[in-house]
Structure formats: C-alpha cells, structure tokens
Amino acid sequence: MPAELIDGVAVAKLVRAEVARDTQALVERGVTPGLTVVLVGEDPASAVYVRAKEKACIEAGMNGKTIRLPATTPQDELLALIDRLNADTTVHGILVQMPVPKHIDPQAVILRIAPTKDVDGFHPVNVGRVWIGEKSGFAPCTPAGVMVLLEKAGVEVSGKNVVVLGRSNIVGKPMVSLLVAASATVTVCHSKTRDLPSVVRGADILIAAIGRPEFVTADMVKPGAVVIDVGINRVDDATNAKGYRLCGDVHFAGVSAVASKITPVPGGVGPMTIAMLLKNTVRAATQGLD
Ligand code: NDP
After folding, report:
1. C-alpha of residue 172 to centroid of ligand 1, in Å
2. Which residue, 54, 55, 93, 110, shows the most beta carbons closer than 10 Å to its own?
3. Residue nearest to atom 8 of ligand 1 (CA)
4. How many Å apart are CA 62 and CA 25, to the nearest integer?
C-alpha cells in the first residue's frame, strides 16, 4: 500500500489560522505583533522568500515589514540597523535573510539580534534554551515545523528510533534537540557517517535534510517507516516549462511504496517554515507583555 501523504499545506493553514486568532487577541490588548525582515542584496531566491514572509504576516493581521539594503552595505551599517530594531518596541521579531553578502559575517549578525526578538532561533542563547528545554527559547522554524507535522499526522515520537540525515545549524542540529526533548532515540548522519544506508534502515522515523536530490532510495528505508523530507532541490528538467523541477532529498516515487507516511516536495515541510516563523513572532510579542 502506498504511503499516506502528510499534507504540509493543510497543516500550515491550521497553524496560520491559529496565529491569526492569537494576533487578533493581541491587537485587542493594544499590541500588533510585528516582524521586520532585512534583506541585504538582490539574491532572487531570497527576494522570493522575503516577499512570502511579508505577505504571510499581513494575511495573519501582523505588521510585516521588509527593509531592503544594497549588497554593498557595510557590516557596521547592518549591525547599527539591528541595534535600532532591537530598541524599537513595535518590532517583536527580527530576521536577517541568509545568506548575507560575503563581506558580512553571518555569525556577527546573528549575535547582534536580541535573543528575545530572534524568531529564527539561531542566536546561541536560543540554541541553548531549546537544548535545556527552557520554554522561553525560540526553536528554528523548519525543525519546529517538522515536529508539528509529526504531531498532526498522529506520529508518536517518544521511544522511536529517529535518524536525522544532516547536521546543519539551521535544520539537523536543532532537529536533534527537539526530538531528544520529545523522548526519541536519535541518530545523526552526515558526510562522514560510515555505512549510512544501514544506519538509515534502522529508522522508525527518518528526517532527511542534506540538500542532495533524491538521495534516499527505497532500499534505505525500513518498511512502514515515517519519512519527512526537508530537502528542496532544483534539478534540470527539459520536460518542464521552467526548465527545472523541485524535488526533495528522498526519491519520492520509490520510498512512498515502502514508507507508511511521507511528506511530498513541494507541499510538505516547506509551507511549515513560514507558519512557524509567524508563530514565533506572536510568541515574541506575547512574551513582551509578561
Ligand atoms: P547544509 O548544506 O547546511 O547541510 C547539509 C548537511 O547534510 C551537512 O550536515 C552535510 O554533512 C550533510 N550531507 C551532505 N551530503 C551528504 C551525503 N552525501 N551523505 C551524508 N550527509 C551529507 O544544508 P541545510 O541543512 O541548510 O539544508 C538541507 C536541505 O534542506 C536543503 O535541500 C535545503 O534546501 C533544505 N531546507 C529546506 C527548508 C524548508 O523550509 N523546507 C529550510 C532549510 C533548508 P557534513 O556536515 O558532514 O558536511
């Protein structure tokens, strides 16, 4: 039997409706949650993401603002802007779209954002808070979205063997931290993992986030496993009018024949990322009231 689809579009819609309700309640208390996104340069993919974030904020009834800076902006100027946003009480969430131009140190940018406004969850203070299970910490949006997808799909995480493929700071590592907090037994694989297919075959739940198109094939997946595909890859496709198609890190056609549940790409994890960003921003605005 083919795997059941985990519909990220539908789950993201639920989360965004919840965010809109919470926003309305805050507005009634005199606070409009505000997210400011800073985009340095003109990277086309980043411009698309930033527009989508602003639009989602506005649809939820929040203040969504984008500040666009030229690619030549000196690091000091960007840091001074972050200082102003940190001090602005109408701004509850600050996000500097990555990647920043090469002359800017991304870590200096992350460290400058006040942890209470770091709705991306990349500041070391938030990384630490999430690790030790402190509720005030902001978890990065993509792994937080994966946890909501698993929950809404009725997948029990506690006690399960979960393999996370990838150890980046934005997906793999925070994914591990959230899964451990949810009482999973977690194994992390990366480019130095020996005999990766046999490790992956031990997974009751597999989370793939390596940025390698269709890397995970059916023979690497235990029958009945739940497969979450975080990957978003563009591959050339002459049959497509755009000349390319999007695919994940999982070979969807093959793996969906052995898995019990699977996320598609697009329409799986992707829509959850923005939904969780909105959720973090509402939380930031709420924490400001406490
Ligand atoms: P990174 O490139 O930062 O990290 C990739 C990780 O995968 C690294 O830990 C790397 O190992 C590991 N890796 C790469 N190749 C292999 C391999 N052949 N075998 C084993 N491990 C390997 O990627 P990100 O974490 O930023 O993103 C991963 C994917 O998720 C991408 O496709 C990205 O587009 C997508 N993504 C999707 C989002 C969404 O909203 N759905 C949001 C963010 C990312 P090592 O550390 O040893 O180098």
Report:
1. 8
2. 93
3. 166
4. 11
